[in-house]
Amino acid sequence: MSASHTAMVRFTDVTKTFKGSSGPFNAVDGVTLDIRKGEIFGVIGYSGAGKSTLVRLINALETVSGGSVEVDGTDLTGRSETELRKVRAGIGMIFQQFNLLSSRTVAGNIAYPLKVAGWDRARRAARVAELLEFVGIADKAKQYPNKLSGGQKQRVGIARALATNPSILLADEATSALDPETTQDVLALLKRVNRDLGVTVVVITHEMDVVKSICDRVAVMEHGKVVESGDVYPVFADPQHRATRRFVGATVKDRPSAKVLERLRHRHPHRLVTVAVHEDGSSGGRITDVLRDNDVQGTVVFGGISEVTERPFGSLTWELAGDDAAIERCVATLRSYTDVTDLGTAANPLVDPRAEDAAAAPDPGVDGSTGTAEPGLAASAPYPVPGSTLAGSAEGGTLAPGVPRFDKPRTDGSTEGGAR
Ligand SMILES: Nc1ncnc2c1ncn2[C@@H]1O[C@H](COP(=O)(O)OP(=O)(O)OP(=O)(O)O)[C@@H](O)[C@H]1O
């Protein structure tokens, strides 16, 4: 559904202090943020960043130490338990481990919150049938949770969370225990919950892929603070904070890391430049025009294009060979309409700070300040483009027949021609 600009949740200078083993610390530290009615909002951060605490403040499972949280216009500060229960009734929640009652059937799990809310048997049965249909597991009504797959369990969790018609759904790492294919199915269901039912969805995750797939806007958290927030596409296209660059780099994997770059330079000693492919997806054709007009030979030696919020996103790294002045003219022209990162030549190498940040991305389960693990490297994707040559020996190997052209981005979110 299209989001309005009215705040469904408003955090104003919110702090949550816990007692730690070495004294009090702020798990949430001065957060000011609006989550709009009707949007899918992502909160991303490494383990311990404060995401769960922030979200638990929305349904008053935690209370603020400072600042205020408003839900649909109601300030939660100083409310009685009875008043908070009313607010909570409008908020559903799903969890990584599903939290289903093992002693109840699927139907029994979904009916449970309706029973608590005092619905009579006939109304409960009708609502449960409707929800089972909506989440696509009508045939599993009489099964017990231990007979279900992870994806089916999460569908039960979603149906249960939606039972009393909440206006907000909080999803705390809801796909983290699922395989990639099931993750996509559950994310598609969350999108339907948002679009068809008008529910505002707040997604907590440590995976930028989740944000990339379904979120309208995102907040990046580190050490209790929101370090960056905004519409998902611009955050991907121009990440400002190091933590954001790490998340983006780890999911898109379109830029060669220092190690890969070193190998590329052996095979491609001429000028290397990384050219961003954004929004309208037309930069591919324009690059070849610019090269042709300046009599510069271009070869794609690395790259990846996928989709972010259903728009093309990624970059291609080119080797440019020709007259120095002509190459400078090409780079200047390309810079007039897209982002160009100059990687220099084998003799005069330059680094890409974004690729460096991505390569330094820690394991998602680890706090961002301490990790040093390197994410998997994308194999490069050499493929022919009009007016340019193919890097026969480029990183990552051979040219598969039918490899799509770079100006036709794939829609499955994967790196073209490369392992992910
Ligand atoms: N009730 C509590 N008492 C004390 N410390 C807490 C409490 N709840 C959370 N914390 C601490 O607050 C910090 C933030 O935790 P939080 O669970 O919000 O982070 P997170 O980003 O959701 O991480 P994860 O993905 O690992 O759950 C962590 O250091 C955590 O140990």
TrEMBL record:
Oligomeric form and interacting partners: Homodimer. Forms a membrane-associated complex with FtsX.
Disordered: annotated segments: 348-420
Organism: Sanguibacter keddieii (strain ATCC 51767 / DSM 10542 / NCFB 3025 / ST-74)
MF GO annotations: ATP binding; ATP hydrolysis activity
Function: Part of the ABC transporter FtsEX involved in cellular division. Has ATPase activity.
Biased composition (Basic and acidic residues): 405-420
Protein name: ABC-type metal ion transport system, ATPase component
Keyword terms: Amino-acid transport, ATP-binding, Cell membrane, Membrane, Nucleotide-binding, Translocase, Transport
One Pfam family named in its UniProt record: ABC_tran
Family designation: Belongs to the ABC transporter superfamily.
Source domain of life: Bacteria
Cellular component aspect of the GO annotation: plasma membrane
Domain ABC transporter: 9-248
GO biological process assignments: amino acid transport
UniProt-listed InterPro entries: AAA+_ATPase, ABC_transporter-like_ATP-bd, ABC_transporter-like_CS, ACT-like_dom_sf, MetN_ABC, MetN_ABC_transporter-like, NIL_domain, P-loop_NTPase
